[in-house]
Amino acid sequence: MAVDNIKSLVKQLPKGFIWGTATSAYQVEGAAFADGKKASIWDDFVRRSGTVKNGDTGDTACDHYHRMGEDVALLAELGVKAYRFSLSWPRLIPDGTGEVNMQGVDFYKRLLDELRERGITPYVTLYHWDLPSALQEKGGWPNREILDWFEEYVGVVLEHLGRDIPNFIILNEPAVIAYVGHYEGIHAPGLKNAAAMYATMHHLNMVHGRSYRQIKAAFPEANVASTYTHFPIYPLDGKPENAAAAELMMSVWSDGFFGPAFKGEYPANISDFVVPYIREGDLELCRASGDFLGINHYCPDYAVAAAEDIPARLTFAHNAGKIDPIGTTDLGWPIVPQGLYDALIDLKERYNPKRIIITEGGGAFNDTPDASGKIHDRRRIDYYAAYLEAAFRARQEGVPLEGYFAWSFLDNFEWGEGYGPRFGLVYVDYDGGLKRMPKDSFYWFKDLIGR
Prior knowledge:
Blueprint lengths: L1 H10 L6 E5 L2 H4 L12 H5 L18 H15 L3 E5 L2 H4 L9 H16 L3 E7 L5 H4 L9 H15 L6 E6 L1 H11 L9 H25 L4 E7 L3 E3 L4 H24 L4 H7 L7 H5 L6 E4 L4 E5 L8 E4 L19 H14 L5 E6 L16 H19 L4 E7 L18 E4 L5 E4 L1 H11 L1
Parallel strand pairs: 1-2, 1-11, 2-3, 3-4, 4-5, 5-7, 6-8, 7-10, 10-11
Antiparallel strand pairs: 8-9, 12-13
């Protein structure tokens, strides 16, 4: 079993291998309108009827904003040497541009100070989906002006926090921003428009390239990258139309971002859709492969041809097929460790990144405390062991894998699913004062990375 093999594989890793865990601002911070912060598109989206299960919001989340010291102490207990978190743009610049909120700046300064004192290296995500509402009112990501808005935001971060940030992740999962938020409409801002999706795709690629250069000009020694959702997309079955759908979805989801970053070009099967938004010099600006490639990976997906009147010509659903799953998570996502191996090998063969860090990996397993207050989440342990084994197998075959961040540190607000799914190494008692309770997986991970 993977859980029996993984410790010996970890012992073979170089000492510099990066072990970490991760969160994002909207999912854990709470304090949604405190101390000068204004609304983000997620603050707005959760207030629309039917968008989030049980009507949940991130208003309180895990209240990390007020319990940050306690949480950093738990990170230190876990033994990780790296922590990935995101900055809230509307906490730093409430209106998206203009006046800086120094209370927000002070919060992140204190967090960075706490991490430094504990010997934990920050990996700071600049954008994890919480666009200021004021900018959405001006058109949001489909508006090319987002390039200047984002440049101003990055400038504020560099001025006030940059000296304490050795690792920048510019964008988290741009495919989710473009496809899920602007085409499927099940994430903020909730649009269902193919043109908005392709405009957003191109502007995200340009923001990545421009921000990479902006940060490196200010702090040349910083590691700068974006992180992408990458996984195999299999046809649901042997039908030719479903094979074509899988190829198209791979372009929309992965290659529409990797192509511009690594090659300065879009895949041929979507280029016509993006051309209306491209100006002279854009593709050269997009070309910035980064100092490493961040990858978030959970499971493969399966494509089927969609109705002819849908511009993207496909649909996209978890657990729609059976490609060697060894089970499912409590979200119904298929557990397919081979999918991570395949994704890593694919990246090596087609793009040859110099460094890869898995910036998110994990599963939703909703185990609750027993009578003694212990959370026995053996399924999460088995999940991590199997996926890490697959990742290290790819590494042995030449994939330049240099780190792994467990998603997530805390149970948290899981977007459209609300507080139902639990991804955390630490249980958060939402009905019991938000008490933190490390799970069995917390101690297993601590032991594993402690060697």
